């Protein structure tokens, strides 16, 4: 469906993230809450596996009853807040339902969501989720259930009352609070123009407008030299099994995490700026519903990961929804074989080394990715001149956002 609305209509929900100043007392309390939530998650995994082996069902309602029993039997578990523990059960149930849905849909193994696994203390990311009953904002601070008070660095105002908050810690040890609030539509003036977008590795996004192509930024490649140096430092200083890590190892590990965070922020900044330019210029956008997960198993894995196609696509969808632009997600099948002018389809797939598309039916010659971008317009019904002779049995538009 199309993302339509006006200034008074919500466009789903948005996250507003802020840095936290955490005192030693609050840090100890948060770590204790995380240990309890991780224990609840691991118990859910064990119960789910036991129920599966016995041929029984283990749904969210059954897990809620188990949580009540666990809290009544364990005083240390009862000492923590019930809200984050209930959210741990909800997150487990949602993760398990997603995996079962993918299995029933008979998706390939590489595209399925994995079944929930046990969380290890040394490797699992620290995350706590609180619903509206588990926190409150008072005096500029964030107060969580259990008497945990946190200082929020308010870099900007919250546009509305938050419905939930996620507390998490990144690889550098920094604490953040991510609030969920209703997002307001901010419509832009109509321009009467449309654009087709094709994803790729050589260029992250190739469009029907030469001015809006997104070249591969190569943020990861530019930072690979420093990253490799810090990783070699970690390898030389890695402690032996059973020994405590040295200060040099911890410093090198921190530098690696800092570098990864910088690269991730650069990719996000590039994606947001490009998505903003596209949304401001075009009313309707036809974009390939590309799933880049399979590239992780190919020889292009590193370059594809550096292109951050999934993150760029997510930013474009979010920006289009925010500014009330119509965005069509087009099925990617045969987009490199169809002609964007007449709709004819080649008999054989083009190898990646062949970068020019030549139509044997109408004689049209164009760059391969430019032709695919035009095919997006044809399939979304945004280019009448190209759609008149389009294939009626071609893959349909998957959905619109």
UniProtKB/TrEMBL annotation:
Residues 183-290 form the Probable transposase IS891/IS1136/IS1341 domain. It holds the Pfam family Cas12f1-like_TNB. It comes from the Bacteria. Residues 206-226, 382-401 are annotated as: Disordered. Keywords: DNA recombination, DNA-binding, Transposition. Residues 316-375 form the Cas12f1-like TNB domain. Residues 209-221 have a biased composition (Basic and acidic residues). In the C-terminal section; belongs to the transposase 35 family. This is Transposase.
């Amino acid at each position: 469906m199309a993302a339509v609305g006006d200034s008074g209509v919500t466009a789903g929900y948005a996250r507003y993230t802020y840095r936290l100043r955490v005192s030693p007392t609050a840090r100890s309390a948060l770590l204790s809450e995380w240990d309890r939530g991780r224990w609840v998650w691991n118990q859910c995994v064990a119960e789910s596996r036991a129920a599966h082996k016995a041929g029984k069902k283990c749904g969210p309602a059954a897990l809620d009853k188990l949580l009540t029993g666990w809290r009544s039997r364990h005083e240390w578990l009862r000492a923590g807040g019930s809200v984050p523990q209930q959210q741990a059960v909800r997150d487990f149930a949602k993760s398990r339902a997603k995996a079962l849905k993918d299995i029933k849909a008979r998706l390939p193994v590489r595209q399925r969501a994995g079944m929930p696994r046990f969380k290890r203390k040394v490797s699992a990311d620290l995350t706590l989720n609180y619903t509206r009953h588990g926190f409150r904002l008072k005096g500029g601070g964030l107060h969580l259930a259990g008497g945990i008070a946190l200082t929020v660095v308010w870099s900007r105002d919250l546009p509305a009352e938050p419905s939930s908050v996620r507390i998490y810690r990144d690889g550098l040890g920094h604490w953040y609070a991510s609030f969920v609030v209703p997002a307001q539509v901010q419509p832009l003036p109509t321009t009467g123009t449309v654009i087709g977008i094709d994803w790729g590795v050589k260029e992250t996004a190739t469009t029907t407008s030469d001015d809006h192509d997104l070249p591969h930024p190569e943020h990861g490649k530019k930072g690979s030299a420093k990253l490799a140096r810090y990783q070699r430092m970690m390898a030389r200083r890695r402690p032996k099994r059973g020994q405590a890590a040295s200060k040099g190892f911890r410093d090198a590990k921190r530098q690696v995490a800092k570098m990864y965070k910088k690269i991730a922020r650069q990719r996000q900044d590039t994606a947001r700026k490009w998505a903003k330019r596209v949304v401001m210029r075009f009313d309707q956008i036809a974009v390939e519903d590309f799933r880049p997960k399979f590239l992780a198993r190919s020889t292009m894995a590193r370059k594809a990961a550096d292109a951050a196609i999934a993150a760029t696509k997510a930013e474009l969808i979010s920006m289009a929804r925010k500014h009330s632009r119509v965005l069509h997600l087009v099925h990617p099948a045969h987009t490199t074989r169809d002609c964007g002018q007449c709709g004819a389809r080649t008999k054989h797939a083009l190898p990646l080394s062949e970068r020019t598309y030549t139509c044997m039916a109408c004689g049209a010659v164009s760059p391969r990715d430019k032709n695919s971008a035009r095919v997006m317009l044809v399939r979304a019904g945004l280019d009448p001149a190209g759609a008149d002779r389009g294939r009626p049995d071609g893959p349909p538009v998957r959905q619109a956002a």
